[in-house]
C-alpha cells in the first residue's frame, strides 16, 4: 500500500496518479455504453422496425438483457479479479464490451440486439469493481475516498458524452464511437502496475475469489446482501424514472417535449455533482454510513419533487432529473463501502459483483413496475416501487459497519 508523504503535494500526486486516472477513464467509457441504450432506445428500436407499445415492452426486454449480462459478468469478473489480478479483468472487460459496441451498430433484428446487449453487459460488469478495488488498495486509507470519488465523478461524465454523441450522430455511429473509445483505452492501461496487496497474496495458500464463501457464513452473507441493497434506489431512479421519463412527462402534463437523452444527461450532471459532494463529505465527516444516509434522504426529496412536477416546463422537469441524479450520487461511496467490507482475497469478487447485482436488480424493479402500473397506474405504481426500494436501502444501511478507517490488508478466513 502507498503511504502518505506528509504534504499536500505528495497526496495530490497519489490521488491523481495513473491507477486512479486509468480507472476513472475506464468507468467513463463504461458509463457511456451503459446509458447509451437508454438514450437511443426509441430511435434504435424504430430503426429496426418497431413502433407503439413495442418501444416500451421491447425497451424493457433489452434493458433487462443488458442487466442480466452484467449480473453474470459481475460474478465472473469478480472471481477472476481475486484469482488472476485486478488489471487483467480491467483489460478483459473493456475489450469485450468495446467489441460488442462495434457489433451493436450493425444490428437489424431484435434478437441480435438482445444478444449483443447481453454480451456488452457481461463486459461492462468488470470495469467499476476492478477500478474501485485497485484504487482502494493502492491509496492510503485516509485518502482512498478521494481516489474513488475521482473515479466515480469522471466516470459518470460518460453519460454526458453519450447524450452529446447521440444528438450529433446516428444511433449506429454512437455505438461505433463507444467501441473505438474502449479499444483506445486499452493502450493506456499497459502502463498501470498491479495492486501491491494482490501481489502480496499471490504466494499465499489462502482461498481466493471463492464466490460461494459469501453464502456459507451468516456474517459474510449479511455484509454482501446489505452492501447490495443500499444501492437499490440508484437503479430505480435510472431504470424507471429516467429511462421512461418521456412517458412520465406525458402523464404529468409537462409542457414541451421531454427526451430520454436529455433526461439522462441532466440526471448524470446531477450524479457528477453528487459523487463529488458525497466523496468530499465522507472525507470531512470521516464516515461512509452518514453520507449514504444523507443522500438516501435527498433521494426521497427528489422523487417527491419529480411526482409533484405536474404541468411544469420541460426545463424545470430536466432540473428535477438533475436533483434525482444528485440524490443517487452516493454511487462511489456505495461501491467503496462494499470493497471495504471484505478481505483482499474476496475484495474484487464483492466490489465487482455488488454494483452489478444492483444493476441486475433493474430486472425485478422494472418487472415490478410493469405489474404495479397495471393495477395502480404509472404514477402510483412507480411511487410504490420507489418507496419499497428506499425503505429496504435504509434498513440495510443500518446493518452495515462503518469502514472509513478500516485497514484493508487482511484475508477473509474460511472454515
Please summarize what this structure is:
By secondary structure, this protein is an all-alpha fold.
Features:
single chain, 415 residues, mainly alpha, 19 helices, 77% helix, 0% strand, globular, disordered N terminus
What does this structure look like?
By secondary structure, the protein is mainly alpha-helical. The chain has 19 helices and no strands. Helices cover 77% and strands 0% of the residues. The protein has helices at residues 8-15, 18-47, 54-84, 86-104, 110-124, 127-138, 144-156, 158-168, 171-189, 196-202, 218-229, 232-242, 245-251, 260-285, 289-307, 314-327, 331-340, 344-360, 362-399.
Order of helices and strands: HHHHHHHHHHHHHHHHHHH
Distance, first to last CA: 28 Å
User: Based on CA inertia axes, which overall geometry fits?
Assistant: globular
Main beta sheet, described? none
| Mean pLDDT over the full residue set | 87
**Helix tally?**
19
Helix content: over 70%
Strand content: under 5%
Beta-strand segment tally = 0
Q: Indicate the radius of gyration in whole angstroms.
A: 20 Å
User: Low-confidence parts, pLDDT < 50 over ≥5 residues?
Assistant: 1-6
Structural class: mainly alpha
Amino acid at each position: 500500500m502507498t503511504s502518505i508523504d506528509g504534504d499536500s503535494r505528495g497526496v495530490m500526486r497519489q490521488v491523481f496518479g495513473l491507477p486512479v486516472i486509468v480507472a476513472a477513464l475506464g468507468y467513463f467509457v463504461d458509463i457511456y455504453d451503459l446509458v447509451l441504450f437508454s438514450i437511443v432506445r426509441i430511435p434504435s428500436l424504430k430503426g429496426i422496425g418497431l413502433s407503439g407499445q413495442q418501444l416500451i415492452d421491447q425497451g424493457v426486454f433489452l434493458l433487462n438483457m443488458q442487466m442480466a449480462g452484467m449480473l453474470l459478468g459481475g460474478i465472473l469478473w469478480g472471481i477472476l479479479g481475486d484469482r488472476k489480478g485486478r488489471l487483467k479483468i480491467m483489460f478483459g472487460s473493456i475489450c469485450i464490451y468495446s467489441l460488442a459496441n462495434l457489433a451493436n451498430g450493425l444490428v437489424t433484428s431484435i434478437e441480435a440486439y438482445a444478444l449483443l446487449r447481453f454480451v456488452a453487459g457481461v463486459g461492462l460488469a468488470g470495469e467499476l469493481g476492478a477500478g474501485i478495488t485497485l484504487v482502494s488498495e493502492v491509496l492510503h486509507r485516509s485518502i482512498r475516498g478521494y481516489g474513488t470519488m475521482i473515479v466515480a465523478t469522471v466516470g459518470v461524465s460518460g453519460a454526458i458524452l453519450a447524450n452529446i454523441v447521440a444528438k450529433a450522430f446516428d444511433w449506429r455511429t454512437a455505438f461505433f464511437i463507444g467501441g473505438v473509445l474502449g479499444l483506445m483505452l486499452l493502450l493506456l492501461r499497459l502502463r498501470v502496475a498491479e495492486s501491491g496487496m494482490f501481489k502480496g497474496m499471490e504466494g499465499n495458500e489462502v482461498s481466493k475469489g471463492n464466490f460461494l464463501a459469501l453464502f456459507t457464513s451468516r456474517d459474510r452473507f449479511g455484509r454482501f446482501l446489505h452492501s447490495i441493497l443500499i444501492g437499490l434506489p440508484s437503479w430505480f431512479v435510472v431504470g424507471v424514472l429516467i429511462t421512461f421519463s418521456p412517458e412520465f412527462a406525458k402523464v404529468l402534463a409537462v409542457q414541451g417535449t421531454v427526451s430520454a437523452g436529455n433526461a439522462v444527461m441532466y440526471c448524470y450532471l446531477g450524479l457528477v455533482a453528487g459523487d463529488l459532494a458525497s466523496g468530499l463529505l465522507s472525507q470531512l465527516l470521516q464516515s461512509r454510513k452518514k453520507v449514504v444516509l444523507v443522500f438516501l434522504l435527498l433521494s426521497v426529496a427528489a422523487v417527491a419533487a419529480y411526482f409533484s412536477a405536474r404541468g411544469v416546463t420541460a426545463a424545470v422537469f430536466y432540473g428535477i432529473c438533475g436533483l434525482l441524479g444528485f440524490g443517487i450520487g452516493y454511487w462511489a461511496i456505495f461501491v467503496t463501502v462494499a470493497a471495504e467490507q471484505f478481505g483482499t482475497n474476496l475484495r474484487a469478487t464483492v466490489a465487482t459483483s455488488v454494483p452489478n447485482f444492483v444493476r441486475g436488480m433493474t430486472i425485478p424493479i422494472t418487472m415490478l413496475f410493469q405489474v404495479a402500473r397495471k393495477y395502480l397506474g404509472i404514477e402510483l405504481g412507480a411511487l410504490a416501487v420507489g418507496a419499497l426500494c428506499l425503505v429496504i436501502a435504509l434498513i440495510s444501511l443500518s446493518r452495515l459497519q462503518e469502514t472509513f478507517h478500516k485497514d484493508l490488508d487482511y484475508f477473509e478466513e474460511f472454515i
